[in-house]
Design brief:
Layout lengths: L8 E6 L14 H15 L4 E6 L2 H11 L4 H25 L4 E5 L8 E2 L2 H9 L3 E5 L9 H12 L3 E6 L20 E3 H6 L7 H9 L4 E5 L5 H6 L6 E4 L1
Helix pairs in contact: 1-3, 2-3, 5-7
Length: about 240
Amino acid sequence: MAETPKYKRFLLKLSGEALMGDDAYGINRATIERIVAEIAAVAKLDVEMSIVIGGGNIFRGVAPGAQGMDRATADYMGMLATIMNALALQDAMRQHGIVARVQSALSVEQVVEPYIRNKALRYLEEGKVVIFAAGTGNPFFTTDTAAALRASEMGAEIVLKGTKVDGVYTADPNKDASARKYATITFDEAIIKNLKVMDATAFALCRDQKLPISVFSIFSPGALKRIIMGENEGTLVHV
């Protein structure tokens, strides 16, 4: 009997730091292979998946030299880092037999396609994974905001935020042993409790669009697939 996913179309947000593994910065090959294996397990289902990836793993390496730099210039450097990550992710997917297309909000046409909404939608309908790079293409906006924006534009049913932590807690679980994980929480409750699920702009956009957010650990084996199949995993933020 074929498995029936709960979510047909979704967007996965990955931080650049997730690609570092235990390294100080850069892309850890074993780590990206592990993440792509999780993506591959879901790609086999009848789903439409897009991805937004950050650039912190690369920009962290040049951050000391960026101190005192103009904020917009630093943000553009971060956007270029996300393009590098997107290409690495696309190549790792290709080796797993997954067809992926990279679309960038910044024009680097010799390397990646420009972001064109209708083309991205067509790729999704064809069963290809679409990786959105360069954030929103504008400085002062995070890749969290890019994820909320692209998910809204693609008509995604949910945003999946893959992190190093397995959900949203009452406090930082690394600092507070008594911190409890929320199974579900509303947008309003998260605001009142000042829980940092996403940056404020991204969070407000998801709330306005009634777009749920699932926060989970991308390093928990099978977690991504369990969420897509509708099982309890991580923390679900909803209206």
